[in-house]
Each structure stands twice: as structure tokens, then as C-alpha cells.
Design a protein that fits this description.
Layout lengths: L1 E10 L2 E6 L5 E5 L6 H13 L18 E9 L5 E9 L4 E5 L2 E2 L12 E4 L5 H4 L2 H13 L3 H25 L8 H35 L8 E6 L11 H14 L1 H7 L10 E6 L2 E2 H4 L2 H23 L4 E5 L7 H11 L5 E5 L8 E5 L5 E2 L2
Parallel strand pairs: 3-13, 3-14, 8-12, 12-13
Antiparallel strand pairs: 1-2, 1-4, 2-15, 4-5, 5-6, 6-7, 9-10, 10-11
Amino acid sequence: MRLQCIKYQNFRNHQLLTFEPGDGITLIHGANGSGKTSILEGIHYCALTKSQVGATDGECLRFASDYFILNGNFFSETDASVTVKVVYTRGGDKQVTVDNSELKPFSRHIGRIPCITFSPSEIVIVNGAPAERRRFIDTLISQTDRKYLDDLLAYRRVLHQRNALLVQLYSGNNVHKDMLSLWTETLAKLAASIVYARMQFLIPFCYQFQTLYKQLSIDEHPSLLYRCSLGNINNDTTHEVLATLFLARFEETKKQEILRGQTLTGPHRDDLLFLLQEKEIKKYASRGQLRTFLISLKLTQYRVYHTILEEKPLCLFDDIFSELDASRTADIFSILETCGQTIITSAEKKGGRKVTAFSMESLQHIRE
């Protein structure tokens, strides 16, 4: 997948901007605050219908503007065109149009334009709370597996309903007491499907990750470990067995769940442990090691997507080279040269002959 052209109107600090990247590595360089990250953010909106930095639609409005418009034109490996238009009006709803047809729900668009991001804020995936790693693995799988995304959305709805019922039962409202077993059975099936998919996805992902990490590091052995709230399970555990285990656990903890008003077991409680030299990386690693680990995760994501989808994902890498030495920077460039279209931001001009470079000053945009 590659971006041919994207046009911005009233998006962040860009009143009007047209950006046409190269087919390989494109570097956007300029001072901090000049709008480099916003360019990547607009592309991410077109690919995944939202900001990559977690900003709300309203926060992406240019100052004193009442709307923003993004128009992106993409091409697949088979040269099939995909046009995306995103319109947001202050106080109104966001509208996403793909190939001239309005898109609802937005989740239908996930995976159509496979996209991989890197930003400094994403370091929390490696050293932050378990929720960050769950979000990472959910995003990983959702772009390649529609059933997983559907199961995940259904799981969240059922979990919300079951938790609401647990709160009612704790307060003494037993009117819908019989509903608990129905919600529990549905939740167990969905939980089993999600956990099974995660574990199966991680098998090839871990292999690719360890292989790639060797290209960026010396004498460091990384590993990934899925920690399930059920306890010790392995890659041979079937979907059916997982569903049975979840049902049994829900029965064991039913009284405690009613007292606490929340579901205590499930994929929403799981974690993905990142290890380096068999030690948890977030507790022992340096900042450079943390960043290298995260970059390796993202580059592995590219390779796995390419294998599964037979489509080269679009890479959006914001400030990827800060805190890395020259040798590691060169290694990353060497890997990126084998990838598809990659758009990178940097405070300084970097790269060599195979890099298309734009300074923010050279891009045609208007500011008041």
C-alpha cells in the first residue's frame, strides 16, 4: 500500500497543504512545532479513521477553524485505487467517505489500508501499564483478522453488560439474576476466541521479532511472553478448552465478582511481557534499549503484515532516530530500504541516496 497524495485543510497548524511522498523512504525534517507530526497524523486518519497520538477530533482542528478536511489517495500492490475523505465539523460528527461511499461503522475500514506507526509516546507499550500492551496486540491483529476485530468489539459490549449486571446484583436487585449465566457463557466463548487468536498470532510474530532484533543489537536475547489471567496455558491449548476454563473460572469467582462489581478474568486482564536477557525490560533496560525494542516490534509488525496480507503496509515513523547512535540508525535505514513506502519525521536531515527529503519550509502550505 502506498500514498500517492494527501491534502489537508484546517488540520492542526496546516491551513492548506498538499503532500506527495516518494515510493520508498520519505523524510520530512524541520524544527519542532513546524507540523511534521501532523502530516503523519492526517495520513493515519485516512488509514485508521483516528489520530495515532490519541487526540480527539476536536483537538485536530486548526485554531479558530470550525472544520477540517483530509483527502487521501492510496494505491494497493495491484494498483487498485483507494480514496479516503475525512471531514470533521466542530460540535458535529466525523464523516469518513471511502471511494465515494460513506463509511459506517468506521471499524469496517480497519485493514483496508494496512498501516504501522512509531511515535516517541508509544514507548509506553514497552514500559507502561498492561493496558498499553493489550492495545498494541489488539491493533496488531485487528488489521489482519476481521473476525478478531468483530470478536473484540463484541467482547467489550458483553463485558460492559455483564459488569452492569454484577453491580445490580450487588445492590440487591435480583430481577435479572438468571441473565448472569447467559452473559457469562457468551463472554467465555468470546474470551476464548480472543486469547486463542492472540497466542496463535504471537507464534510467528515472536520468531520474526527475534530474527529482526539481531540485526539491531549485539549479544542481547529478547523474548515475548503472553500472560493469561487464567494462569498457565500454552500454545497447544485449544479454543474449546479455553472456553471451558473461562466458564469454570467465572463460576469460581462469581461471589467475588458480584462483591466487586466487575469481571475479574478475561483478555481485558491479560498482559504481554517483554523480556531482554530473560529479565523484564521495563524494569532493567536503558532508554536506548527500550527504544530499540519498540522499533523492533514495529518492524516485525511490518514483516508479519506483509506475509499475511501479501500487501506492503504503509509505515509512519515519527522521530524514530532520536536517542539512537549512528550505527543503529544506519541499521534501521538498511532495513527500511527493503520495506515499502515509509514516511519518517526528524528534526534533522538524515539518510542517503535512496531517501526523498522534504524540509517543512519547502512544503507548500499557508499559515496566518
